[in-house]
Amino acid sequence: MLDPNFIRENKEVVAKGVQKRGGSQSLTEDFIKTDESWRNLITEVEGLRADKNKLGKDDREESKKLKERIKEIEDKLKDIENKRIEFLSKIPNVPEERAPVGKDEEENVAIREVGKPTKFSFDAKSYLDLAHNMIDIEKAAEVSGSRFAYIMGDLVLLEFALVRFVFDKLSKYGFVPVVPPTLIKSDVMRKMGKTKFIEEGDAFYVSEDDLYLVGTAEDTIGPLHMNQTLGKEDLPIRYVGFSSAFRREAGSYGKDAGGILRVHQFDKVEMFSFTEPTKSIEENDFLLERQEDIMKDLGLPYQVVHICTGDMGFTATNQFDIETWIPSEGRYRETHSCSNTTDYQARGLNIKFNPGDGEKTEYVHMLNATGLAIGRTLIAIIENYQTKDGNIMVPRALKKYVGKKEIKGLQASN
Q: Which compartment or compartments is the protein found in (predicted)?
């Protein structure tokens, strides 16, 4: 969440930020009004407590009246505090000045293209045609329902080759490998700023245990330093995590439902950084560079897109996406995201930074970036590295991990 003091002192900036994202300025007004009422009640109840403490033993009647009045105000205070927190949680992060202003994905800005879209001298196939012997959607539907898949055979080797490749590559930059939990307490999920993810019905919920399945490894890597104060010598802290992730994909019924592009369960490698407040913009650019290094090593054509204010993540102040060329569709599709959430998540999680030298303690800044969305990267590799005879060449960077130069695709079932 945003700093309440920042909202009070910068009402117009926050309201403009909400407006840039396509939200209503009443969000800010609702919080300001509720916050003012909340602070007035606190002042009143503290005054009454002070008056009660001044009373002597002979002022029992007056003490009783004050006690009843204090109880009455405290009850009001609980209700208004809940409303205050609710309004605060609905105010998104304020966009950076460099973030392009726009209402939706149509107004995102392509910054650059790297590599030329793949062209073939033969009729190219889709990934489902090429790898149908290694992707079993039909059996998964019988077992688990729609939007699930069995990944099998050499495609599994390719998946874990991708994971090891990224882990090895990022370790050179001090990223600490982590396999985080895939279930998270509901209050911690909200502290991560994932209220919108929950309220839009995109999160899977285990009601008996009050736990959510993570929508990305970010959800449980972020709280790793919850309720801690980090020193200047500790930062930056960088993690690279691998986990399965789960999303209902609410609102996308029927869209991309026939394959593994948009599924309920998928595997993902995630980068996550904790930085000094003055260095998060620099870290945002650093994480994007790491993403591009990965893509260049894999030899996949892609474009970098600056996400506009109306399309960026709720907790983000700036966001870049990488979109990879998918030959069967003749277009780029999103495979990576890279976001700076500044202190928005850190405030909810109470992760602070002590700069030393007697300076005031602040909240750290937190950033997340996709290392690889495995399913989408598999699609891109299968299609961009297909051969005329229906097989799939293994990218050079992955050969030592897969242990072969080529994966048998379409021809294996003929």
A: Cytoplasm
User: Any idea which fold 105-413 has?
Assistant: BirA Bifunctional Protein; domain 2 (3.30.930)
Domain with CATH 3.30.930.10 in the chain: 105-413
Q: Are 301 and 335 in contact (CB under 8 A)?
A: no
Assess whether 84 carries a catalytic annotation: no
Give the rounded distance of the alpha carbon of 198 from its chain centre.
Answer: 13
State how beta strands 176-178 and 237-246 pair: parallel
CATH classification (class only), 4-89:
mainly alpha
Query: Residues 30-53: pLDDT tens digits?
Result: 999 999 999 999 998 889 888 888
Q: Is 376 among the catalytic positions?
A: yes
Instruction: State yes or no: 249 annotated in a binding site.
Output: yes
Check whether 266 is labelled as a binding-site residue: yes
Whether residue 176 contacts residue 238, with contact meaning beta carbons closer than 8 Å, is answered with yes
Q: How confident is the model at residue 414, as a pLDDT?
A: 42
Catalytic residue check, 334: yes
Structure confidence by residue, pLDDT tens digits, 257-309? 667 888 999 999 999 999 999 999 999 999 999 999 999 999 999 999 999 99
Q: Nearest to residue 245, comparing CAs of 374, 347, 128?
A: 374
- Exactly one of 147, 190, 238, 247 is catalytic; name it: 247
**28 is known to lie in a ligand binding site:** no
